[in-house]
Amino acid sequence: MHPTAPIFLMLSAMLLIPNYPYYVIFFYTGLAIFFTCLNGRENHDVAYTVQLPVAKRDVVKARFAFVLVLEGVQTAAAVPFAALRQSFPMPGNEVGMDANVALFAFSFVLLGLFNLVFFSIYYRNVRKVGKAFVVSSITVFVYMGILEVCTHLIPFLRNRMDTPDPQYLTEKLILLAAGILLFAVLTWAAYQNAVRRFEAQDL
């Protein structure tokens, strides 16, 4: 793990910033993953690991286990800050989605998208980690931009999802369940792509 990873976990406190695009917090999780993979390239971790008596599939599985733990901890760390933000006597987020349950629902999809794009490219050639990060970052920022615009334009998002909790909690929890499910599907697809492409590499 790159030392920036635990530092980025503390950025969950950015949910306390008024009028800020809160999805950016979860982008930093992807940045920590990138730094970890970049550090592994510079230290020849992959080359060393594949010489051990382990299958290539297990090398990918170990990396995904780390990623899932990191993303889970980042999400869990953000929850108390979101609850604290809700308790402040101030208006909601004027930039986009407020710090509520719906934010976490869409953030799970963001993380799943990052996993799918980043690892599908990274495990095609583990030496080109920069390319994987650039393409996945562009994908994530386009997704964030679309979400923030839709939060202002789509009545359902503006009037029901972009509201303080526990308003419309049932709808938000349904959205959260859908977000978690989509995260699982995207991450599973990312894992399958990564295994297939890593096993095809000649290291």
Question: How would you concisely characterize the structure shown here?
Answer:
By secondary structure, this protein is mostly helical.
Describe the structure.
The chain is an all-alpha fold and 203 residues long. The protein is 73% helix and 0% strand. It contains eight helices and no strands. It has helices at residues 4-9, 24-42, 45-49, 56-87, 101-122, 129-153, 155-161, 169-200. The longest helix is centred in the middle third of the chain and has 32 residues, at 56-87.
Low-confidence stretches: none
| Terminal CA distance | 22 Å
- Mean of residue pLDDT values: 92
Order of helices and strands: HHHHHHHH
Percent helix: over 70%
- Assign an overall shape: elongated
Q: What is the helix tally?
A: 8
Amount of beta strand: under 5%
What gyration radius follows from the Cα positions, in whole Å?
18 Å
- Give the biggest beta sheet: none
Structural class: mainly alpha
Give the strand tally. 0
